[in-house]
Amino acid sequence: MKSLIVYCSSHGTTEKVVGILSDYLAGEVVSVDLKKDNNIIDLENYDIVIIGGSIRAGMIQRRIKKFIQTYHDELVYKELGLFLVFMREGDLAVEQFNNAFPQDLRKNSAALGLFGGEFLVSKMNFFERQVVKKVDGITTDQYRLDLEAIREFASRFNNLKMMV
């Protein structure tokens, strides 16, 4: 089976997660960073489609939203996975996840993932650093990726592949 991971990475954390996820997934995996690649994607070439991004200012990236709107009618018929790279936890994380992805896609997904995140203050611009400092009190890089959640997410798809 062939998997597609579509994502958007601002400071590299989501890209890092996609690399880890790709290593855990069985079979051929193609990844597309929508920030770098605006080509039309033929979803017919893929058995599994995984979509991921991060939350910035309470919203998922515009390119992810546009991808979902453009391909929505095809996505509902795919083995689908959705994930966020996000430093928040608990109810706020669930709320942000639900706001990021349409309900019908969440319901039809084989896997949903909250993978933790990173605050890469060293890669942020002045405005971003000020916001992170004011809102979260963070002034240095912080790392909190959930590798176990990424492994469990991948295993759901690997188990699907075994059933075929």
What would you say this structure looks like, in words?
There is one protein chain. The protein is α/β, with parallel strands linked by helices. It has one domain: Flavodoxin domain (Rossmann fold). The chain is about 45% helix and about 25% strand. It contains six helices and eight strands. Strands 1, 2, 3, 4, 5 and 6 form a six-stranded mixed beta sheet that branches. A hairpin with a 2-residue loop joins strand 3 and strand 4. Helix 1 crosses helix 6 (about 145-164). The longest helix is centred in the last third of the chain and has 17 residues, at about 145-164. The protein is globular and about 45 Å long. The N and C termini lie close together (about 10 Å). One of its GO terms (biological process) is heme biosynthetic process. This is Menaquinone-dependent protoporphyrinogen oxidase. One of its GO terms (molecular function) is oxidoreductase activity, acting on NAD(P)H. It comes from Neobacillus bataviensis.
CATH overall fold name? Rossmann fold
State the CATH architecture: 3-Layer(aba) Sandwich
- Number of continuous helical runs: 6
- Secondary-structure content class: alpha/beta
Assess the beta-strand content as a share of residues: 25-35%
Please report the first level of CATH classification, the CATH class. Alpha Beta
General form: globular
CATH superfamily: Flavodoxin domain
Task: Give the mean pLDDT.
Answer: 88
InterPro entries: Flavodoxin/NO_synth, Flavodoxin_dom, Flavoprotein-like_sf, Protoporphyrinogen_IX_DH
Pfam families: Flavodoxin_5
Protein name: Menaquinone-dependent protoporphyrinogen oxidase
GO molecular function, one term: menaquinone-dependent protoporphyrinogen oxidase activity
